[in-house]
Amino acid sequence: MIELEGVPELIDPVMVAAFEGWNDAGDAASTAVAHLEQEWKGEVFAALDAEDYYDFQVNRPTVWMDAGVRKITWPTTRLSVVRVGGEKPRDLVLVRGIEPSMRWRSFCNELLGFAHELGVELVVILGALLGDTPHTRPVPISGTTSDADLARRMDLEETKYEGPTGIVGVLQEACTHAGVPAVSLWAAVPHYVSQPPNPKATLALLNRLEDLIDVRIPLGELPEDARAWQVGVDQLAAEDSEVAEYVQTLEEARDTAELPEASGEAIAREFERYLRRRDGGGPPGPGERTRPPRPQQQPPEPGAGPAAPGAPGAAGGRPDEDDGDGSGPGTTGSGTED
Predict the structure, then answer these.
(1) Closest among 176, 142, 156 to 300, alpha carbons compared
(2) For 177-203, how does the pLDDT look when each residue is reduced to its tens digit (9 = 90+)?
(3) How far from each other are the two terminal CA atoms of the chain, in whole angstroms?
(4) How far is residue 51's CA from residue 48's CA, in Å, rounded to a whole number?
(5) How does pLDDT run across 72-104, given as a tens digit for each residue?
(6) Where are the extended beta strands (E) located within 11-68?
(7) How far, in Å, CA of 317 to CA of 329, rounded?
């Protein structure tokens, strides 16, 4: 039995989770949850026992000084709660940590125990993968679920993926088997510029999350950071003709694949978001909810396919082998602790 002392009764709680490591290309997903914690001043109320789930030779603890006293921070997964105000307030349970090294089923069961005790109505898991997408275009965000009914109600794609998976896929399936509605949102990060941070991908994830759960998320400096990131990558690409040519090839493929009506839906959604922010209101009122457009294609999970052969500066996102627990090589995240 999980006892949560000091946590008030929550209002329409949604759990939002992200994990550093294999499912976090460019640190885009974990940075998104960190942004929510920072903007809403989330307070940590629980942490999983690091001894149960982490190999400290893989994810090492760090030593730091506090007023002259040496202290150790252990890699783990922490939970915090924030209340989003407005006409229709609701609470978010934020889960941020590192993909565990072992005992994945116990790890998921412990998180589901928290979700049950807190009355969580929906679990949203954020992830980021490496893909053949140009940095000059909007970041593709795909929403998937294993629940066919939820897919219909929320305009999501019912996942049909088969292959190696990470903690995002395992947690989503654990939620489904436990009867907890769960959705995964994936950002595609250009594989030729996979180094963190990627504020453009983080911003895209937050915008899609905002639409999905009907909350207004304060973006802070993220839009400016995203613009600066793109300008920086533009400059790097311009200095290498081979990279510039490859980016142009990706742009042409992306523009050809996108249907006009899909682009129209994206423009309409952006305009609706602009109106909400201009009016300074919170989430839309009853009957005013706008749903995100259906993803055009089902995303691969991280590691589902290698980078394009011969791509200049391509970074790998697939482990050479996987023993079933997702701990193989090829991690796209930094592996640093929270």
Answers:
(1) 142
(2) 999 999 999 999 999 999 999 999 999
(3) 26
(4) 9
(5) 999 999 999 999 987 788 999 999 999 999 999
(6) 14-20, 43-47, 62-66
(7) 9
CA 63 to CA 236: how far, in whole Å? 35
For the chain, helix (H) and strand (E) counts, in that order, are 9, 10
- Specify the residue for token string 């978001």: 273
Residue 264 burial (10 A CB sphere; 0-12, 13-18, 19+)? exposed
Burial degree of 49 (CB within 10 A; 0-12, 13-18, 19+): exposed
Sign of CA dihedral 170, 164, 192, 244: negative
Q: Which single residue is written with the structure tokens 């640093």? A: 336
Pick from 77, 29, 33: nearest CA to 53 = 77
- Token duo for residue 8: 């008030």
Residue with tokens 């005790």: 117
| β-pairing verdict for 14-20 and 90-98 | parallel
What is this structure's pTM?
0.76
For residues 153 and 95, is the Cβ–Cβ distance under 8 A?
no
